[in-house]
Fold this protein.
Amino acid sequence: MPISRRDFLKLVGAGAVAFSLPAQRVQASGRFVRAETSHAMLYDSVKCVGCRACQQACKARAGLPYESDPTGLYEMPRDLSANTWTIIKLYDGAQQDAFVKQQCMHCIEPVCVSVCPVAALEKTPEGPVVYHGERCIGCRYCMAACPFGIPKSQWDKALPLIQKCDFCADRLAAGGQPACGEACPTGALIFGSRKQMLDTAHARLNADSTYYPHVYGETEAGGTSMLYISDVNYQELGFPKLPEKDLPSITWPYMSGVPALIGVMVTLSTGIYLRTHRNENGAPKKEE
């Protein structure tokens, strides 16, 4: 059914507003989060035995399909994906082995939020970085921007959404804790305020010299809500070496130009529409 010029202008006008308003909010997103009292988790690689109870609890809570190993006996995904939001991997080192858990880091100042032009990703004051699929336009900027490679696309879907750990935001809102932490039988994964987790992490490091002397996530990229301690260097475990400066302060100068760019695109598309449709039904009528 042909669309009228008036309806077209309404659509592009609404699109311009939808793009520009969230982008204006992105700069302030997360700036007022009280990081020390927000929710956080501490993963202790030394205490982890690789049982993957956390991994299975995550899938059960989120309703994600299980991924079996080649034998079909075990649930063993190869990596993070749209169907696996957290995973336990084994680091096979020359001197020692270590388990490591991967999932969204829930950064204090998340770069994925900063680069999203439609506010499909949101950093909540409670700590989680959550995703609003109904807002997503599929640009996948978040996938390109995340230094940890966390957001994944549903590549097998006709209209794919972004999938990642949401820190069990619904459970937190109800006064509970993330399913993965609740399922851990060894204390390798514990939950509390960010200050409590940092205090616990430093206490363990001070009490046992076998730990690598650094809490990963305390300062990296401005700090994260997922914190790590291990007896293996973090770069060997696959973690990126990042500056202490939060990444959105780097990306915002570029993303702030998105609303203006959208305005130019809307103006050009409107002009093209008017020129190509002016003779379809004779001379264009004057708008009232």
Notes: Residues 3-33 have pLDDT under 50 and may be disordered. The chain has one domain: 29-254. The CA atoms of residues 42 and 227 lie 5 Å apart.
